[in-house]
Structures are given as C-alpha cells and as structure tokens.
Design brief:
This protein has one helix spanning 97-100, and strands at 3-5, 14-17, 20-30, 38-45, 51-57, 61-64, 67-78, 81-86, 92-96, 112-118, 121-126, 130-138, 151-156, 161-165, 173-177, 182-187. It is mostly beta strands.
Amino acid sequence: MSSYNTSDFRKGLKVQIDGNPFIMIECNFVKPGKGQALYKCKLRDLVRGTVLERTYKSGDELEAADIHETDTTFLYEQTGTWIFMEKETYEQYELQKEAIGDAWRYLLPDMPCKMLLYNDNPIGITPPNHVILKVEYTEPAVRGNTATNVTKPAKLQTGAEIIVPNFVETGDVIKVDTRTDEYIERVKE
C-alpha cells in the first residue's frame, strides 16, 4: 500500500488512520522559530463523519486509503435505502441515509452520481454540482416589495427546502448548486 509524506499533505487527500478512511479537510503548515516544521491537519472520517485534529512533524507519513470513485446512476429510494447502479458493470449498490448525508435532497431517478468506494464497499455519493428541479411550493410574492435581494423559502420536488429570490413562483423550474444549496437561475421548460 502506498503512503503520503508530509510534503504531499493537502486538502482533499484520502488517507487511512487506524484502519479507517479519512479525507483531509484542512492542512496548515506551521514553522516555529526553533525545531521541526509542523503540519496541523483536520481529517473527517468517511464512514462515521467524525472530525479528527492531528499534528504531524515534517517527515511523518500516512497510509493511502483504498478509495476510488465510480460513475453510477440513482435508481430509486425504498424505506430509507437508496439504490444506485454502476454504469459499466450494472452492479447495484445500496446506501443508507447516514452514508448519503444531505445529498438525498437533490436525487431524482436516473440522475448520474459519483459513488465513493472503500475496499469496494460504498461509503458515500456525490450528486452532480448543478441540478434542475421543480418548485413544489413557495409563498406568493408580496406586491410592492421591490427591495433588492428579497428572498423566501421554497420546497422543491425532492423535498429539499432552499432560499430563492422573491420572483420565483410555485411550478417554476430552477437550477440549484448542490454544493452550496443555493439558487442559481430559473430554467425555461
């Protein structure tokens, strides 16, 4: 198994600590006046979701995690289990709500997703960066309220709730950024 030296440390690096896969979410280089350089790192457990803070000395190594991504398609959700199919092999994977996190808010049948596999077992998914969804319900716009940047909550067809501009109405089709949960634009049907 390969390993990473401290000079390789960076945000997004996938490593293994005590047999569990972690992703480096923050890495800061600290050079004190005396002594060795230090790397202060925040790592998130990819299975449990917990965050770990560790400090490493220059020259330390971490084992690389056996993690890879594969292209899948979301098929359907059944009583808290989400079913995905790999595009090339047609192999199906099941993920529970804990592994999916907030990504369920943007999943529609036949939507392409990236499946994260650890030792060939699914541990998470990444939906597309932008999705197009229909607004199921939002309050009507208040007449005369022409102040800039007036917003309101809206419920989307998947059950997700996001903040949209005041001019968006029930039935509109909108583009949403899944990474930030932000409204991007209205889409013509």
